[in-house]
Amino acid sequence: MNLRLLASTPALETIIATAMLTTTSGAAPSNLFHRLSANPDKVAEVIGRLEVQHGSILEHNRLNWFLEASEGEVLRILLTNRFFTFTRLGSNRWLISANLRTVLESQAMGGDFARLLLESISGVAPSIYNFVRRIR
After folding, report:
1. 20 to 30 A from 80, CA-CA: which of 32, 107, 110, 122?
2. Which domains does the chain have, with CATH numbers?
């Protein structure tokens, strides 16, 4: 199995931190986003307070991957979590789409796919990647 992140929502963690703060702040989301964009340390601090039970915060994004896997492997993934979207590109080649909530929930299934997914977000969501590694 081979997995490669192709694209993700820009400023992914800043958007999530903005969503988190809009539930507790009276500031406009656009103002929060601009302030957070200028302060990556604050983004990491806010992400560090993430509560996994409030998973809807992690739905404000989209990630796309290229996957090389057999039909059986893809079927197992789909049966485990229906929130992945798969598009067949050819024999054992797939385009996958999901959000970070789906990525984090998939960690419960374990295995190569879950590990590869987690590793794939390390560059676009480093605070969330580190958070998940700590709670595993």
Report:
1. 122
2. 2-135 (3.30.1360.170)
